[in-house]
Amino acid sequence: MPDELQRRGWVRFEHDTELAAWVTAAGPAAHRAVADPANSDWLRCRSTWFAGVNVLPNDATGAVAGSGPLRGAAVDAIRRLGLPADRWDRGQVSVIYPGYPQPRAGEPEAAFRFRRDRDAAHVDGLLPVGPLRRRLLREPHAFVLGLPVTEAGPGASPMVVWEGSHEVMRQAFRTALSGRPAEDWPQVDLTDAYHAARRHVFENCKRTVVHARPGEAYLVHRLALHGVSPWQPGAAAPEAGRMIVYFRPELSGPITDWLARP
Ligand SMILES: [Fe+2]
Q: Considering the domain boundaries, does residue 262 fall inside one?
C-alpha cells in the first residue's frame, strides 16, 4: 500500500471494520457540526459546498462522540510510513450538495471557470497571502486522509487526484527553495513555481476520480495536486450530501520534512 502512495500519490483502503465502527460513531457528530449555526460561515458557492475546516470536535486520538481512537488499515499504513498517526488535528467535514459548483460570493469569472473545468485543483498548505494572493508554505501537512461519512455515488463530487503530481511538485518546490534556509521557507513566494508545475501536471498526469464508501478510506500525498469534481446531474446521494471527513495533521519536525518525507 505505501508503495502505491509513493508511486501514484494516493491509495485507497478497502472496507475496514475498525474504521467503519469509527465512522458509525463519529458520523452523527459530523452531521451536528454541519447543522450547527455557529459553523454556517463555512457554506460556500451558493450553499453547494460546506468547507467545514476543523469543525469536527475530535481529540488528538481521533476520538469523538464515543467513537474511541481512530484505527484501521489506513492508520496502520500511515504509521508504517513514519508519518504522524497518533496526534490528529480536528477533522474537516467537507460536504458537497447537488449543483456544485456555483460561483462563490465575489469569485472572479476565471476562478469560477477553474473550479468548474479544473476541479479547483490545488496543493494543500500553500496559502494565498496578501492582496496579490502569493502562495506561501504556511501549513506543512503530513498527508490528507479522507473518510467518507455518507453513501454517495461516484458522480457526487468525489475528490480527484492527478497521479504522480506529488513528484512533479516535489521537484518544482525543491528547485524553488534550494539554497534557502529552512527558517525562510514560509516567506518564499512559491506562486510561479507552483503555477508552472500545475500546468505541467495538467498536461502530463492522469486525472483520477477517487470514490470511496463509508468504512473505506483514501490517503493522498501532501504534495499531490487534487480537487473536487463537479456534481453530475442525477448523482446518487442522501439529503445530507456527499460528506467526507478529512484529517490533515501538520508535520511536527523541521519544515524541510515537507519535501523530504515519503
Ligand atoms: Fe485540498
A: no
CATH number for the domain that contains residue 35:
2.60.120.620
User: Which grid cell is 254?
Assistant: 523541521
Cα–Cα nearest to 95, from 24, 19, 40: 40
**What spacing in Å lies between the alpha carbon of 42 and ligand 1's midpoint?**
15
C-alpha cell at 260: 523530504
- Ion ligand 1 nearby residues (CB, 5 A): 124
Q: How many domains does the chain have?
A: 1
Question: How far, in Å, from the CA of 249 to the mean position of ligand 1?
Answer: 13
Rounded to an integer, what distance in angstroms lies between the CA atom of residue 63 and that of residue 20?
13
pLDDT tens per residue across span 54-106: 999 999 999 999 999 999 999 999 999 999 999 999 999 999 999 999 999 99
Handedness of CA 59, 41, 104, 196 (dihedral sign): negative
> Ligand 1: distance of its center to the CA of 164 in Å?
16
